[in-house]
């Protein structure tokens, strides 16, 4: 394991800061996005008006958004169906199963896809393995579901190594 496998291509404050213009400037034509603490707070499965506005903006700009989540089908479906967003559940990040499934389903070009997520250990690592760019966002809420707490502890150690070698990750307002 190399710490470089956990370094995101970009880091932004929140997924809602990503604009169609900034994505296109970087040649991005499709957005894969984690669900919990990236798109919605893990403990608020109904989302927010801000989420609705961001998804509408992406739809109008003809930039497909596909949720790629490690959660089970029923949980992801409940969270995204009212927004009309397609998803891949049980994605098995940090492995590439879910990312590959989404790319294959839509015929996306890997050079034109980005994975957005709040965890180095799953989202960013899976992106590296899948050969696509990544965007790290700050978690929407500071608490985590019980099964994420283990990853966060490991993530703190990896982050400390990244910061020791490269300095702090700087979160931008857009890419």
TrEMBL record:
Cofactor: Mg(2+)
Xref: InterPro entries: HAD-like_hydrolase, HAD-like_sf, HAD-SF_hydro_IA, HAD-SF_hydro_IIIA, HAD_sf, PGPP1/Gep4
GO biological process: N-acetylneuraminate biosynthetic process
Pfam (any one): Hydrolase_like
GO MF, one example: phosphatidylglycerophosphatase activity
Keywords: Hydrolase, Magnesium
NCBIfam families: HAD-SF-IA-v1 (TIGR01549), HAD-SF-IIIA (TIGR01662), YqeG_hyp_ppase (TIGR01668)
Protein known as: YqeG family HAD IIIA-type phosphatase
CDD domains: HAD_BsYqeG-like
């Amino acid at each position: 394991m190399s710490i470089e496998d956990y370094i995101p291509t970009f880091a932004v404050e929140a997924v809602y800061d990503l604009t169609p213009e900034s994505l296109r400037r970087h040649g991005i034509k499709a957005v894969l996005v984690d669900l919990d603490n990236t798109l919605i707070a893990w403990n608020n499965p109904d989302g927010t008006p801000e989420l609705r506005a961001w998804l509408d903006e992406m739809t109008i700009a003809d930039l497909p958004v596909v949720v790629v989540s490690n959660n089970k089908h029923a949980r992801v479906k409940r969270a995204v169906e009212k927004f009309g967003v397609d998803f891949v559940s049980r994605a098995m990040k940090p492995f590439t199963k879910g990312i590959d499934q989404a790319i294959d389903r839509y015929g996306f070009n890997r050079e034109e896809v980005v994975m957005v997520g709040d965890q180095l250990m799953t989202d960013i690592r899976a992106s590296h393995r899948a050969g696509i760019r990544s965007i790290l966002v700050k978690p929407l809420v500071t608490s985590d579901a019980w099964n994420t707490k283990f990853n966060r502890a490991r993530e703190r150690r990896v982050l400390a190594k990244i910061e020791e070698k490269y300095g702090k990750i700087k979160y931008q307002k857009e890419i």
